[in-house]
User: What shape does this take?
Amino acid sequence: MRITSALVDPALLDLPWHLPLEDWPADHLVALPQGISRHVVRFVKLNDTVYALKETRERIAEKEYDLLRALERIDFPAVKAVAIVTDRVDSLETVLITRHLQFSLPYRALFSHVLRPETMNRLLDALAALIVRMHLTGFSWGDCSLSNTLFRRDAGAFAAYLVDAETGNLHPRLSEGQRREDIEILRLNIFGECLDLQAAELLHEAIDPESVVDDIVARYERLWHEVTYEQEVPRDARHDIEGRIRRLNDLGFDVAEVSLSTVDGGYRVRPKVVDAGYHTRRLLRLTGLDAEENQARQLLNDLDTYRAESDLTDEQQAAHRWLTEVFEPVVRAVPANLRRKLEPQEIFSQIIQHKWLLSERAGRDVGMGPAVQSYLTDVLAHKPDEQAVLGVEIGSV
Ligand SMILES: Nc1ncnc2c1ncn2[C@@H]1O[C@H](COP(=O)(O)OP(=O)(O)OP(=O)(O)O)[C@@H](O)[C@H]1O
Ligand SMILES: [Mg+2]
Assistant: This one.
């Protein structure tokens, strides 16, 4: 027997590898909800970690292992590969081991009672967002379906994860044809899955399989368009670029950078959309400022727009200039007696927010100076120190 793994838990070696997964004794296994699959999949618990084991052909396991590792490196929402076990006795099939995704539900488990159409909509939103994210990273799935997705509850909505990467391929970027092909497969699979649910009387009577399919494709297309379309804006329309970034943030996408190329009288704007969690890390790397994710996002949006406007190509140099010429002067403009109220990062991001509101009202970019003054006198001065500490209105406790 041979085990390939980045980090082996030695307890894995003691499992009954000489037996087909199907015949493993129950004391090794844990029963957890599981989607429909061609291969045998079993869950095993070792030292408080649950693993998913899938018996499959060696070549397929290797490919899936490599792909899952590659997806992990780019922080893509997918299950994490742990190891492959090959060369088992009696020519038993190779086993791919992944870490069980905690609190995850296969769609069949979600449909164990008939889902309300509204819940179904949120499920489809999560799947559409997963596929858009996937296509942005250059990953073609080849088998988009509800069975190959895991869902986790996420503050009233769902977050979707890829579970089965067997048919996937990672490219530098996807062509229009590769994207279309994935969406055609999605159509077929979802339609089939809905018919199955209908046959089992698990589909809400108001839900029609055909319209579910049209609906998910429409959601995907809308999101894809918003995330990728190239936009031309006039030269002085910094405000329009901010508006686009805000819409993307509202859709749950983060913008890593905005590329601007000059066209007659303006810019062609193309945002680079990435996963969440990214901003804190990028801000820290570029400026040394440690901020919460949403604060970091606002600070970086400002930095990127600053960089695009000042024609600085070097990211590091632009970040340094932004820090000393934009961020620090704004923070220094806050009188000492007001500085206790909020952290500098929070003050700065509130100022950007405030500037946005003023600019919306004025229908043009009002500029940093006036925004800072207005924020200090109209907003910050009225906040009690304690509010920053307690996060509550004094009068309401
Ligand atoms: N790491 C994991 N965490 C949680 N559940 C998992 C994990 N790996 C597999 N599963 C469960 O096992 C099911 C089957 O896995 P998978 O889709 O990889 O099998 P498959 O046989 O390759 O599927 P297919 O028939 O689509 O080829 C999944 O739907 C999921 O419910
Ligand atoms: Mg599968």
In short: The longest helix spans residues 176-199. DSSP finds 13 helices and 13 strands in the chain. The CA atoms of residues 56 and 140 lie 21 Å apart. Residues 34-35, 37-39, 41, 52, 54, 79, 98-101, 104, 106, 147-148, 150, 163-164, 166 surround adenosine-5'-triphosphate (ligand 1) (CB under 6 Å).
